[in-house]
Amino acid sequence: MSTSLDQLETQGETARRRKTRDRLIDAAYEVFAETGIHAASVEMITERAGFTRGAFYSNFDSKEELFFALAERENRLRFERLQDGVDSILPGLDAATAVTDETLSTLVMRFLEMQGDDRRWCLVQSEFRLLAMRDAAVAASYLEYQRDFQASLAARLDDALRSVGLTFVIDPVAVTRMIVNVYESAMQESILEGSNVPNMSQSPIVLGTLPPLIQSLTRPL
Description:
By secondary structure, this protein is mainly alpha-helical. The protein has a two-stranded antiparallel ribbon. α1 crosses α4, α6 packs across α7 and α8 runs antiparallel to α9.
């Protein structure tokens, strides 16, 4: 009985800690997007979350560590959307199906439509990239995070293409970087213009660049 009670207490403590971390991450997302990471203070984040500084430092050593926790969560959500897209869009296709340029373009746009509105995340990532460029102590961790994300995304995109009998003609990670750069460029221009485009799949930059880019960088297996 004693062991069971100890286990229950540990589980309860773990659940409370997880909720605290989630609330701090949510608050940081809002504050980072509103003020920028450099201007955001621990006090601003804890006040938004309804906690004290002690709660912050019992979960994170710094704002930078909190950002990486936020990035891990946001990227996981995007990977889940990508997998949902693979599961819902590709079942009707297989390696024996002829995938035309038009079909491939349609698939690309449908994948992007599932990503939703990423303007706030674009702002936060841009802020953190600037911080990393100015601070060598942050730069190494940021580069590692970026490279891990791009490698994981490249592997999933490569698997999706192979499932329909296609492959990239160059390193999938290099193609992924191009795709991400085009997408981020379109998002940044949309923010600068104050555009009300509901989804980046409708952006002129995305529509005019990504489908032909992907078509030129893929071939049948």
